[in-house]
Amino acid sequence: MVLQTRTAAKAEVNEYIQRVLDTVIQRNPGESEFHQAVKEFMYSMTPVLERDPKYIQYNILERIVEPERMITFRVPWVDDQGRIQVNRGYRVQFNSAIGPYKGGIRFHPSVNAGIIKFLGFEQTFKNSLSGMPIGGGKGGSDFDPKGKSEGEVMRFVQSFMTELYKYIGPDEDVPAGDIGVGPREIGYMFGQYKRICGGHEAGVFTGKGLTYGGSLVRKEATGYGCVYFVEEMLKEKGMSLEGRTVVVSGSGNVAIYAMEKAMQLGAKVVACSDSNGYVYDPQGINLETVKQLKEVERRRIKDYVQEHPHAEYHEGCSGIWTIPCDIALPCATQNEISEESASILVKNGVIAVAEGANMPSTLEAIDIFLQNDVLFGPAKAANAGGVSVSALEMSQNSMRFNWTFEEVDAKLRQIMSNIYRNSMAAAEEYGYTGNLVVGANIAGFLKVADSMIAQGVV
Ligand code: NAP
């Protein structure tokens, strides 16, 4: 009898999850990245729903996959030749159950509604996992800042903000940076917001410059946090980063500071990349050169070999995963590690993979890592350091007070350790010991779901 009841409950859970997945696909046609993010999440929900049917009763899954609001708008601007250009802007306000919407803005030609929704969905659980009182949001545009003049970037950003300002605020929605949006773009956004709204509402953006309300360690936070997460995973197995060979994809904000922290902890980083190709430097990547090329001069990573002729440059991105390494840190973009790349990493003896980027591993790649007992830190957990320090920036703005670098760094390290521990504990409690994908999804979900139930059908 007990067995029969249990089987019936399992069937109900599976049927419910499948129905929600079908609805997501039918309501959001062609949005493959969003479908992928929801699928990865849903498969972790089975043990939660089996244990507590209230989440089915309150239809939480169907509510949680539907953004509270999705804003799409025209962004017209004038280029240096006097031609009128038109881009599309987005902001998804995904879930505000535990706090104001919070999440970055991405400027990249690949940006579309599906990518913004996948990022906003992931952000909701990441923010919950961070332990900070922030909801999930994300935004962006298909504008490509690469190759544009300062004046073009500024005019575009001012036009983007002339629409977006209506929907954001320190207690409503607090954007930050992401791909293609760094301190320069955040500065222009803040300037335009201030001009329209008046006052000096510092808490409406994070990732601001240090001279006007930014937080120390925000620039470094996602990369450093990702490496602190790796440190936790290794510590559990009695290992450390000392002497390890590390491969990092990307050479943007997350990648640069992941490399810096890995080096500080004694690892040797031998490769990094951009969207054209990758450099392999068997003597160890020279980070000062990468910073100069990417942060200061906005040049391509292939120019690295001009300064370091013993290093190799290879066209194309996926080849970076064929370089033997102990630790792989994908820090560029979504779906950059395929099943094939994951298999090569495993064959070459990778010990740990931590996702600095959002959803850089395909579902098949994640399966390969888990089946082969690779220590795997999923994005929601491993790259939550950025948004965590953003929340610390919001706190400092409210207090009108700044913490020192050491204070913020210590808080970041503690937050990453808590995220690791909470994800491990949730995995163990629900019968998936050591599986941080399931653990992070469950730990992130419970707080959001319980808050939604407490707030009624809204
Ligand atoms: P970024 O500074 O703009 O750097 C992005 C890097 O990835 C660049 O090296 C870029 O190369 C490369 N890249 C971008 N699109 C690519 C593509 N389609 N194929 C291959 N390479 C590509 O951005 P970021 O802030 O470091 O963000 C990197 C990742 O981390 C993203 O997934 C983002 O969502 C995630 N993330 C960022 C933060 C944060 O605090 N910034 C926090 C959490 C997660 P090019 O220079 O050639 O474009």
From TrEMBL:
GO (cellular component) term, any one: cytosol
The Glutamate/phenylalanine/leucine/valine/L-tryptophan dehydrogenase C-terminal domain, residue ranges: 215-456
Keywords annotated in UniProt: NAD, Nucleotide-binding, Oxidoreductase
Residue positions binding substrate: 102, 123, 126, 177, 390
Residue sites binding NAD(+) per the record: 222, 253
Any matching Pfam family: ELFV_dehydrog
GO molecular function, a single term: nucleotide binding
Positions of the record's site feature: Important for catalysis: 178
Listed InterPro entries: Aminoacid_DH-like_N_sf, Glu/Leu/Phe/Val/Trp_DH, Glu/Leu/Phe/Val/Trp_DH_C, Glu/Leu/Phe/Val/Trp_DH_dimer, Glu_DH, Glu_Leu_Phe_Val_DH, NAD(P)-bd_dom_sf, NAD_bind_Glu_DH
Active site: 138
One GO-annotated biological process of the protein: glutamate biosynthetic process
Family annotation (PANTHER family): NADP-SPECIFIC GLUTAMATE DEHYDROGENASE 1-RELATED
Protein name, UniProt field: Glutamate dehydrogenase
